[in-house]
Prior knowledge:
This protein has helices spanning 9-26, 31-38, 42-51, 56-65, 69-73, 84-91. The protein has 6 helices and no strands. The longest helix is centred in the N-terminal third of the chain and has 18 residues, at 9-26. Helix 1 (9-26) crosses helix 3 (42-51).
Amino acid sequence: MREYVWETPEEINRNIASNMKNLRKRRKITQKKLSELTGVSYASIKRFEETGNINLISLTKIAVELDAVDGMKALFTGVQYKSIQEVINEQK
């Protein structure tokens, strides 16, 4: 049975974007400077902060620059098994 998620994927993405924006501001890095440091276009960074939409490689580059890679690497880890069948499937 699937657990209900109270946020939409879009809301989750906007929350991630908001967290990144707060960290960027805390580090006193402008969008333009972050673009220069990461090689991610200024337009992509601006769009991400406004909409939460960005491609994964660009998000990873931003995470590296803002020293937030551990959070990226932690995605899909620590997820509990839902059944014994999942344990068996993982062994195959």
